[in-house]
Amino acid sequence: MEIEIFSNHFLLLSQKAMYWEEKKTLLIADLHLGKITHFRKEGIALPSSAYENNFKRLDEIINSFLVERIILLGDLFHNRHNEEWDLFSAWRKKYDIIEIILVLGNHDILPTHLFESSKISYYNKEYIEGNFTFSHHPQKIIQQNTFTFCGHIHPVYCLKYTGKQSLRLPCFVLDPFQAILPGFGVFTGGFEMKALDNRKFFVIAEQKVFEV
Questions:
Q1: How many Cα neighbours within 13 Å face the side chain of 47?
Q2: Which are the contacts of 207, defined by CB distance < 8 A and separation ≥ 6?
Q3: Taking the mean position of all CA atoms in its chain, how far away is CA 202?
Q4: Distance of CA 195 to the CA centre of its chain
Q5: How many other C-beta atoms are found inside a 10 Å radius of the C-beta of residue 106?
Q6: Do 209 and 1 touch, CB atoms closer than 8 A?
Q7: For 17-62, how does the pLDDT look when each residue is reduced to its tens digit (9 = 90+)?
Q8: What is the dihedral of CA 46, 91, 29, 20, to 10 degrees?
Q9: Pairing between strand 25-28 and 166-175?
């Protein structure tokens, strides 16, 4: 699914990411690496292999598109340092020619020297490039002639069936001057967004992205 914003073209990917064609840039929100290991330490039975799905989808995108840069819209790592950071560091070394920019999210509490050692540039609140603003939290007030890309909410759309059945699916939420990306990471949960005037929902179902 392709959308156009300020004469720039963005692909909405079924891997729960967005690709900025003109800048060869991948936009990703809320990986929450380390969350599975953190939950397992707390006694919650999650499969240790589940975090491999994050790296698998990252590899799929990089092998499918010409990615020269990745902008992470916050919450790269869920909590304190654990073995998943070491796995990420090993993954990073495979793609060390790709520039990575991180806008720090509320869960990004790792020491900043870990980002620096992995060649990740980081910004506290937002990163601005031309008419585009990249942040972790959605913006309540957006300046005229700008467009914001953000995450944090992990948006989902609820498809309702007969017999009171429903299905919650991750989605991209597009307002006139803001896009909220789905949470990329496994086991990130989701929040059902309200329908508003001029708001569009692009739902992800398996290998497809479609507007509802």
A1: 6
A2: 14
A3: 15
A4: 21
A5: 10
A6: yes
A7: 999 999 999 999 998 887 655 555 555 555 556 667 889 999 999 9
A8: -140
A9: unpaired
Residue with tokens 């993954």: 91
Q: Over the stretch 81-137, which tens digit does the pLDDT of each residue have?
A: 677 888 899 999 999 999 999 999 998 888 899 999 999 999 999 999 999 999 999
Tell me if 102 sits within 8 A of 83, measured CB to CB. no
Q: At what angle do helices 83-94 and 52-64 cross, to 10 degrees?
A: 10
Interval 65-80 mean pLDDT: 91
Contact partners, residue 77, CB within 8 Å, separation at least 6: 31, 32, 33, 34, 84, 85, 88, 107, 108, 110
Nearest CA-CA partner of 99 in 78, 122, 81? 122
The arithmetic mean of pLDDT across residues 170-196, rounded, is 90
